[in-house]
Amino acid sequence: MAEYNLQAEREFRGLLKERQAYEEALALIQWDLRTKIPAKGADQRSEVIGFLSQKSYQLSTSDRMKHYIDTLKSRPSNENIKRSLEECEEEYNRNRKIPEQEFKEFTMLQSKSETVWQKAREAGDFKLLQPYLEKLVDYNIKFAEYWGYEKNRYDALLQIYEPGVTTELLDDVFQKLRTSLTDLVEKVNQAKQKPDSAILQKHFPKSGQEKFTTEILKRMGYDFEAGRLDETIHPFAIALNPQDVRVTTRYDEEDFRMAVFGTIHEGGHALYEQNINEELALTPLATGTSMGMHESQSLFWENFVARSEAFWINHYPLFQSMAPEPFKEIAFSDFYKAVNEVKPSLIRIEADEMTYSLHIMIRYELEKALINEEIEVKDLPELWNQKMEAYLKVRPKSDREGVLQDIHWSAGDFGYFPSYALGYMYAAQFHQSLNKEMDVDEAVRSGDFGKIKHWLTENIHQHGKLKRPLEILKEVTNEGLNPEYLVNHLKEKYSKIYRM
Amino acid sequence: MAEYNLQAEREFRGLLKERQAYEEALALIQWDLRTKIPAKGADQRSEVIGFLSQKSYQLSTSDRMKHYIDTLKSRPSNENIKRSLEECEEEYNRNRKIPEQEFKEFTMLQSKSETVWQKAREAGDFKLLQPYLEKLVDYNIKFAEYWGYEKNRYDALLQIYEPGVTTELLDDVFQKLRTSLTDLVEKVNQAKQKPDSAILQKHFPKSGQEKFTTEILKRMGYDFEAGRLDETIHPFAIALNPQDVRVTTRYDEEDFRMAVFGTIHEGGHALYEQNINEELALTPLATGTSMGMHESQSLFWENFVARSEAFWINHYPLFQSMAPEPFKEIAFSDFYKAVNEVKPSLIRIEADEMTYSLHIMIRYELEKALINEEIEVKDLPELWNQKMEAYLKVRPKSDREGVLQDIHWSAGDFGYFPSYALGYMYAAQFHQSLNKEMDVDEAVRSGDFGKIKHWLTENIHQHGKLKRPLEILKEVTNEGLNPEYLVNHLKEKYSKIYRM
């Protein structure tokens, strides 16, 4: 019987390997599609994506898969197999609980709706998108019912992106965070001395920006023998396998912040994927454990390292040596403050680290209410604008810079947004824990990122999906989700910058 | 019954589409592997290649495939379906006639042998490779017997690369060609005035070379919206689909000829794939009809266009404007002659257009004799060297620059080499036919490549595999394979350059 089990485990691993092969091919195609593909090649390529995705999906919902789950889950021979089976079972159930016909209709609606969203956004006309969004919300409600939940229907969706996190927890945490953040933003608004990021907008040729960001990636410990850096329109990091994790960026020659902070952000994602324990290779565990945990890694490097005073004390001379003449005239302290300007604004992806989470909460509150049928899609634009005014004191002039700005909902994704804010809070909690073991600022100031990277790998990266997000948080920080650390970080940092 | 047939045709087309999806994914992986992949990523990627290749192979030899072939071949509704069925049936038979176990062993031997070849070549030690080559020859003999042939066992292998061409035909044509070429080479050797290619070896930065070759690709009609140009070690062109055909090149800053003639050569291959009739898309017919025909297209552009006096009359000023100072001092006539230097040498891929075919004939004679068991693998090095002396008057000092220089045999490929020389002859025949319709040199001199590209597309490219190579040759030139045109081209061109 034990022998039989080992044989079954070998076969199960074979099945996981097949799945991984499809996913690796798909990841390469996605990378190419967003970095290299010639314009005319994309049409046919999307057929290939459709075909390979279907093959991968079929494997995940196959009778073979079900057979191994049933055979092995009562006595897996190690933790790796046990967690792989859990992941496969969750996915199997998630996919099989939806009637095939509904899933097909939903998929078609998603892709149609994304196209409509682009048009609606260009036209600033929410009404174009409304009927599609209504259907997408209905499908998500139906799916949530198929999947089941304990207390709140929205929990069923949340699990896909942040397993273990509940609506109850988010309501509590977000409320505290919101109060503190709106208070802080108010203080910033009233500050008399404000940094001015306009001084940063000087021409900086791409080649110099590339040189600087490449150097920083190397110093972070990003392994260029297991990755590469390319240009794209909407930057991302993507893992083809743990030995091939690619970063992309975008150079704005009139504003280096896009490339510098963007590359470091994506580099944080990439470090996570590059440093997963090799033993997890070729299983569904060889990737980041959740969206939020992934974001914690990118934000740790972007905000807690690269936007810190310590970082620029060390790197400003290097930056100036690679930057054009006009940057040489900017005093260090003006520069540091300028890259940390806080300014409530309309667009989430342009938001600073203090206001960003407020953008997320607006989305969270609205999508939670939609899924629980407390509000209607048609009322979204007005509700959006009201919340923007309440939390950020700015009001969009058109839906284009309001409710239509993000792709997520039109792509059918509800429950995803909270991950971004969770990432901020996780990162702050990790930062605090790391500070107990070493003086982080001192390490950053001395340019010794190796110790930091090592700590992140030991505590977070290596585990992949072997541990769930809240499990990692608890082990590393000795407590649960707690927004205080983020608030304290922001208070401390910005009270200096804004003298408030 | 007609309805049933149409339904079966639709399903057959669906099957072809699936096959094409695997092949397109594999082509992208191959391109990436040779241009972009980080060093550590390759190991896992080769597993993915293995998996997807197996899936594609399984489709081509599946019972579903056999079913459609049998159902449809008696009355296909159009020529496209008819020829697709023929291609599928040939492939099905070719693969199914080999016992599965033997095919597996052969595939493993191939990959092992390629690795051994690299070591043997580095060490210049043929004995390392010999046992592998012996087995590979044995397999090829067995396979040829499974596949069958009419007159010569070697024909069975030739069909894979150049359908319709026989050993009998090659023996006849190559003998004529050899006599003429050795005679011409003899004359060149005795010429008193010889061009000196050393004058071309001046530092030429990569960026300038890239600018020039990109401009030439555009003028040739290569569509950059359906392709791109990247760097690699061993340049190639690859079609992912007809809307995405990529060219690669290599820049040698001390010798621009590598990139300039190499890119134009690969551009010729790419033009073929970019201009196949759209109606053939997603069938096995949407590619070049044979290795030889493909080579005719690359060589047409490389030798009959880019190495012509007419080409440089037009493009030398452009070249000089993009090249560094020292090139400005080289007189046009010295430059033109230097890029056409003829010099018998040891390495095939470095050979000039006059001696190249002699390199091919040596390989042809040896592999034909091996497959027909007239010589033994162990005698290859000595036989190689003897033939080199007889045909080219040079003798390798080591097997590294002799029998070990090419990868083909160690990769298990026998019957492939003749295609290169066929490409030269086809190209010369096409050149002659085109000359009847327009003054090619005049068109090249005026930079009007559009007319030339149009003629190649109309006569060759668009047909893909709908027509077989000798069928195209006959239709375009009104005769069969004839080496005279190549000989005449060389005589005429080089009697001027070498005043002989």
Automatic annotation (TrEMBL), chains A, B:
Record EC number: 3.4.17.19
Pfam families referenced in this protein's UniProt entry, alphabetically: Peptidase_M32
Reaction it catalyzes: Release of a C-terminal amino acid with broad specificity, except for -Pro
A molecular function GO annotation: metallocarboxypeptidase activity
GO BP term (any one): proteolysis
SUPFAM superfamilies: Metalloproteases ('zincins'), catalytic domain
Residues where Zn(2+) binds: 265, 269, 295
Cofactor: Zn(2+)
Protein name listed in UniProt: Metal-dependent carboxypeptidase
Domain of life: Bacteria
Organism, as annotated: Sediminibacillus albus
Similarity comment: Belongs to the peptidase M32 family.
Listed PANTHER family: CARBOXYPEPTIDASE 1, METAL-DEPENDENT CARBOXYPEPTIDASE
Main EC class the enzyme belongs to: hydrolase
Co-factor binding details: Binds 1 zinc ion per subunit.
Active site: 266
Key words of the record: Carboxypeptidase, Hydrolase, Metal-binding, Metalloprotease, Protease, Zinc
Function (record text): Broad specificity carboxypetidase that releases amino acids sequentially from the C-terminus, including neutral, aromatic, polar and basic residues.
